[in-house]
């Protein structure tokens, strides 16, 4: 009798799990990369993070942990051909920046990287550390 109840409970649990999994679909996990970059002065060039694959249609996020010297920097997401895919955002030490894509639905599945650069008025190299993801969630 006890064995029959356990068996029925296991079958019921398996049926509920199958029903739940069948209605939720497949969810892609977002990728998160870290960076520790020295950014050139005078906005002369961009430094890029390693590439990550965009898995959804949400905004990108830059979670900065530190920017040396209290300077402001700029960031945007670029594809592997260095074409800008998002708006440009300004950030400073400790900022969490959400970055809108120009066309988020066509960016899904694309390998991309975060570009970071200084302003033309920044006269020194600046270190930036943090993490980023091409998908907010």
Q: What's the SSE blueprint?
A:
Layout: H1 2-24, E1 33-39, E2 47-48, E3 52-53, E4 60-67, E5 73-79, E6 89-91, E7 96-99, H2 104-107, E8 111-118, E9 126-133
Antiparallel strand pairs: 1-9, 2-8, 3-8, 4-7, 4-9, 5-6, 5-8
List the keywords.
alpha+beta; single chain; four-stranded antiparallel sheet; 137 residues
Shape: globular
Beta strands, count: 9
Question: Share of helix among residues?
Answer: 10-25%
Order of helices and strands: HEEEEEEEHEE
Beginning-to-end CA distance, first to last residue: 47 Å
Radius of gyration: 22 Å
Walk me through the structure.
The protein is of the alpha+beta class and 137 residues long. The protein has two helices and nine strands, in the order H-E-E-E-E-E-E-E-H-E-E. The strands form two sheets. Strands 2, 3, 5, 6 and 8 form a five-stranded antiparallel β-sheet that branches. It has a four-stranded antiparallel β-sheet with strand order 1-9-4-7, with no helix packed on it. It is globular. The protein starts with a helix and ends with a strand. Mean pLDDT is 86; it is low at 5-26.
Question: In short, what is this structure?
Answer:
The chain is α+β, with helices and mostly antiparallel strands. The protein has two helices and nine strands, in the order αβββββββαββ.
